[in-house]
């Protein structure tokens, strides 16, 4: 895995490693596939996590552990979308808004998870370079992936909340390349949100008896 940790190029004064570049590109591809409700979003997300896990394993235990969790959630998402495949009118999964109970559960899990992970990172400084924002982004990503796996429109809102911290944090710490990637994430999220929102409204609209299909 030494090749993954070697420098690919320098941009904005940053030394971009192959693992960071490939992982970010796969992450963008996975988000685009999620927008299109393609089941291939999950293998791509798993592969991105696997690449980063291999790059981090052995010297950045915390980062490797986070990627392991991402891969587990990707497997869960693949299983869920396999079960729900064909429920939408176009043969893909059907999307919907979460119930208020589901929203409350996800918000509570995100808050509790962020505190727990941040305390873990604080207790073991080698696991993270900035415990609280890092914990927020990590837990927010997991919650977003869970909502995506369940076909919830709130998936996109969760990604927006992650971006609101991820973009300024990366730019403030001199990681302009990563910050730029998060900006692209944000644009994809807005387009995906609009698409899923409209589809959820179409799915919820009752069909009048005798109306043309």
UniProtKB/TrEMBL annotation:
Keywords: Cell membrane, Membrane, Transmembrane, Transmembrane helix, Transport. The keyword Cell inner membrane does not apply. It is found in: Cell membrane. InterPro entries: NMN_transpt_PnuC. It is a multi-pass membrane protein. Its main location: membrane. Belongs to the nicotinamide ribonucleoside (NR) uptake permease (TC 4.B.1) family. PANTHER family: NICOTINAMIDE RIBOSIDE TRANSPORTER PNUC. This is Nicotinamide mononucleotide transporter family protein. It comes from Streptomyces dubilierae.
